[in-house]
Design goal:
Elements: H1 9-23, H2 32-44, H3 49-63, E1 74-80, E2 87-93, E3 100-106, H4 120-130, E4 133-137, H5 149-164, E5 170-180, H6 182-197, E6 202-208, H7 219-223, H8 232-242, E7 268-275, H9 279-291, E8 296-305, H10 316-333, E9 342-343
Helix pairs in contact: 4-10, 5-6
């Protein structure tokens, strides 16, 4: 077996199978509320994503009950032009007469699941508490639309927001981009591409358990290979739904960690979950940014799993994480000390 990053897909899958067998009986220190949520989720979806397949995964994801979010002054759906046709977006604008800062949010779901509905609760909370316009993007999904289509949808959406912010009550000079899981991957890729073009005034990347590398076997990959929620084999499965071929695995627009340089990127807030195969992936990316001189803060949320961020009000750590994002946004939009995160290297 070759070094990480050089393995073939068959090696990675074999590693996942071995790790799952070895870790089934391993103790896991989940928060009590996370244990309750996990029990309910296992009832809804007793088998991993890669076993149920894309159609069933989408059906189950769409049928999952979601807590209603708080009211926002104005919520509207619209369609903006894109390179592959219209891109649906949902705009959340809290009250206030002045032009507000803006956050473009990219939902998770392994590039193949989800929609703006999945992030409706957190979008509403962030809009209200951070006092910013949140633009949630309904980008095209794999495998029907493989890389680079979802990425190009997201890049064009961020460009549109930067160029048309005044139409939605926003301030184009104060812009952040963020996302969860696959959405964080897309947000990081947008920031990387814009570094060379310099078109977007991105002041912060919010990267919630980002997928930045093609299934590199790090300690969290083995430790959490059987989940909960997301297994290591699920991660490979989602990557293979998204990417066209092996060459895409080294394209920084698909795998941001494969970039040759990380300097001159916007500041970043990187959030990870203890019981997540991608935990070390996100933290390694944070270290790369920091080593290149980027202002980075990171925070690991112990006792929770991949996907926890979308469960505020149910999981205490999710409420904490959303509040931490609000604080980070407030700092860059209206500078004030941030105590919610830990500087990289601490």
């Amino acid at each position: 077996m070759g070094p990480p990053g050089e393995w073939c897909r068959e090696d990675l899958v074999a590693c996942c199978v071995e790790s799952v067998s070895a870790s089934r009986d391993a103790p896991m220190s989940l928060d009590p509320d996370a244990e309750d949520v996990l029990l309910a989720m296992r009832t809804l979806m007793p088998r991993p994503y890669h076993e149920v397949g894309i159609d069933e995964a989408r059906r189950l994801s769409g049928s999952r009950q979601r807590r209603p979010g708080p009211p926002v002054n104005d919520v509207s759906d619209r369609v903006i032009p894109g390179p592959h046709g219209g891109i649906p977006i949902r705009v959340y604008r809290p009250g206030g007469e002045r032009a507000l800062p803006m956050l473009v949010w990219l939902h998770g779901g392994g590039w193949a699941l989800g929609s703006v509905d999945n992030s409706d609760l957190t979008s509403r909370m962030i809009a209200n508490e951070a006092g910013c316009v949140v633009v949630s993007v309904d980008y095209r999904l794999a495998p029907e639309h493989k890389f680079p289509v979802p990425f190009e949808d997201c890049l064009e959406a961020v460009r549109w927001v930067a160029g048309h912010g005044e139409e939605i009550g926003g301030d184009p000079t104060r812009l952040a981009v963020g996302g969860e899981s696959a959405g964080a991957n897309l947000a990081a890729a947008v920031a990387l591409v814009d570094r060379e073009r310099g078109e977007l005034p991105i002041s912060l990347q919010v990267l919630v358990y980002p997928a930045t590398e093609y299934a590199v076997e790090r300690p969290s990959w083995r430790r959490n290979s059987a989940g909960p929620v997301m297994t290591s084999r699920d991660v490979v499965w989602f990557w293979d739904l998204y990417l066209r071929d092996e060459a895409d695995r080294s394209d920084p627009r698909a795998t941001p960690s494969s970039a040759t340089a990380f300097d001159r990127l916007p500041p970043a807030f990187v959030l990870t979950a203890e019981h997540d195969p991608l935990c070390d992936d996100g933290e390694a990316y944070a270290r790369r940014l920091s080593a290149a001189g980027v202002d980075v803060r990171k925070k690991r949320y112990d006792g929770v799993f991949h996907g926890f961020f979308g469960m505020p009000g149910v999981l205490a750590k999710a409420t904490e994480a959303v509040n931490d994002v609000v604080v980070a946004l407030r700092e860059v939009f209206d500078p004030a000390p941030v105590n919610a995160s830990t500087p990289v290297g601490d």
